[in-house]
Structure formats: C-alpha cells, structure tokens
Amino acid sequence: MLVEPEQLKQAPIIESDREQLIRAVIEEIRPNLQRDGGDCQLVGTEGSKIMVKLTGACAFCKLSSVTLESIQARLVERLGEFVRLIPVAGVGNTRH
Questions:
Q1: Phi, psi for 25 (deg, rounded to 5)
Q2: Which domains does the chain carry?
Q3: What pLDDT, on a 0 to 100 scale, did the predictor assign at position 87?
Q4: Nearest alpha-carbon partner for 30 in 62, 60, 91, 74
Q5: Tens-digit pLDDT profile for the chain (96 aa)?
C-alpha cells in the first residue's frame, strides 16, 4: 500500500516537469518568430496533444505549417516521445 500513494505523488511532478520542458522549447523558438512579427503561445496539453496559438504574422503565414513541424520535431526530440502539435485559432475563447 505504500507504493500506491508514492506513485500518486510522482504523477503531478512528472506532468509539471513535462509542461515546463514544453514551455522551454516554445520559449526557445519565440524570439525567431517575434523577429518576423509573429509569436507562438502554449494553450494547453492533453495527453500527446500540445495545443498552441500562432499570433501576429505567424497566424496567416504560408509557412506556418513548416514552423509548426519544426516546433513539433524539437518537442519530440526533447520529450523523447511522439507528440502532436495542434494549432488553435481564436482569441480568448477557450475556457479552463
């Protein structure tokens, strides 16, 4: 029975570290996007899905799919697991 509570304690820490790593990867990319008048923000995570919002020039850029693929590849590399980056449209319409 001692193992079970210990596992419950570790799960939020692991998720927290995972989210911090995701945020760090996005923060590494943001300066390049901002130089071109765009930006990328983490909206949330749901299992292997990572939702991001492209803003500014990135929102309508023809190369946004290339940007998303690049961010996704870096996330897969750093996390060591397959994740899918999903662009989310809209302004402030998400409820938590």
A1: -65, -45
A2: 3-87 (3.30.300.130)
A3: 94
A4: 74
A5: 444 544 444 454 455 889 999 999 999 999 999 999 999 999 999 999 999 999 999 988 899 999 999 999 999 999 999 999 999 986 554 443
Which residue matches tokens 């938590």?
Answer: 96
**Pair of tokens at residue 66:** 């290339």
> Shortest CA distance to 23 belongs to which of 74, 93, 88?
74
Whole-angstrom distance, CA of residue 39 vs CA of residue 28: 11
- Residue ranges with strand state E in the chain: 38-46, 49-56, 84-87
Interatomic CA distance for residues 74 and 42, integer angstroms: 15
Question: How many Å apart are CA 19 and CA 79, to the nearest integer?
Answer: 10
